[in-house]
Design goal:
The protein has about 300 residues and is of the alpha+beta class. Helices cover about 45% and strands about 20% of the residues. The protein has twelve helices and eleven strands. It is globular and about 65 Å long.
Length: about 300
């Protein structure tokens, strides 16, 4: 008998994420990183091991300060800039390849930065689901005293292990670093969902216990013919209260989330199985194959048959 899955495990089952560590940056001030827009299906991340950094706000707001133990996930994949905050012209960086990793360094003599830079790689269809429900810029402060939870300690220990693995040329080091990067994604989302003020979107919804039964139901049984009254009943609240709270926490309706989960599952099935379109439609909760065909094309921009051929 299979063990039951929590909502995050279920999410990562239907939207597999593969971590990849690209660089360890060792800079003395003045330094600056201008990272271009990520490729479709990639979510960049930065983990500060030592020192500090400033993350620019593309909308022109105040830069966000980062300290040792902070992890940044940029779900939108947009171009972004980090710098030392001093305002001086950055010293040029140079890269050198060592076993299992590339180091980026400069000749700056000011305050030192030690930072890991990598990315989380997904199928573009999966990236669409995650980007739609995660904050555009998620910052987890794992080392701060007010965040000294068990998950925060696990996250700090994970970063410590990544520091050790990047410092040597141990056998299997590259595979280990990428596996640890994959774990970093799940652990960062867990940590953020447990914060007192969870960020908007799916993490805020997950951090609100009253709506947990509906979240679990939508991820574990998306093929069920869910209605708003039925979901509200699971949460022991009125339909109106359920609709208001769900929209407030997630920023979207329960129907939106259910459709996205169903379409992601359907895309996976079309790619990996030989089941008929009608069978897949029934699996993800559509009684009519024609209705499924319309919903899939509207959501994915192509018919199920075109998606299967492309896959």
């Amino acid at each position: 008998m299979s063990a039951p899955l929590d909502w995050l495990s279920r999410l990562l089952e239907i939207t597999p994420v593969r971590g990849q560590l690209d660089l360890r940056c060792m800079y003395g001030a003045p330094w600056r990183i201008d990272q271009s827009e990520s490729a479709p299906g990639e979510i960049p991340y930065h983990a500060v091991l030592g020192g500090s950094a400033m993350l620019e706000d593309p909308a022109g707001g105040k830069p966000r300060p980062l300290k040792a133990g902070d992890i940044v996930l940029l779900a939108d994949g947009d171009a972004h800039t980090l710098h030392d905050g001093g305002g001086k012209r950055a010293r040029p960086a140079r890269e050198r390849a060592v076993a299992n990793l590339v180091w980026s360094e400069n000749s700056g003599t000011g305050a030192r930065l030690d930072m890991l830079c990598g990315r989380f790689v997904l199928d573009p269809a999966h990236a669409r689901l995650l980007r739609g429900y995660l904050p555009a810029r998620l910052i987890a402060h794992s080392a701060h005293s007010e965040s000294a939870t068990d998950t925060g300690l696990h996250l700090s220990n994970l970063l410590a292990l990544m520091r050790v693995e990047t410092s040597g040329d141990s056998l299997g080091g590259r595979a280990m670093l990428n596996a640890l990067s994959t774990a970093l994604f799940a652990l960062t989302l867990r940590f953020a969902s447990e914060a007192q003020e969870a960020p908007e979107g799916l993490l805020a919804l997950a951090g609100y216990p009253r709506l947990a039964p509906a979240l679990e139901a939508l991820f574990h049984n998306p093929g069920h013919a869910w209605t708003l009254p039925a979901l509200a009943q699971l949460c022991n609240m009125s339909r109106a209260t359920f609709v208001r709270l769900f929209q407030e926490k997630l920023g979207r309706s329960a129907s939106d989330l259910l459709t996205d989960v169903r379409m992601t599952m359907a895309a996976n099935e079309l790619r990996t199985s030989s089941a008929s379109t009608g069978a897949i439609a029934e699996l993800v909760g559509y009684q009519s194959e024609a209705a499924f065909q319309r919903a899939f094309k509207l959501h994915m921009g192509m018919t199920p048959a075109s998606w299967r051929r492309g896959a």
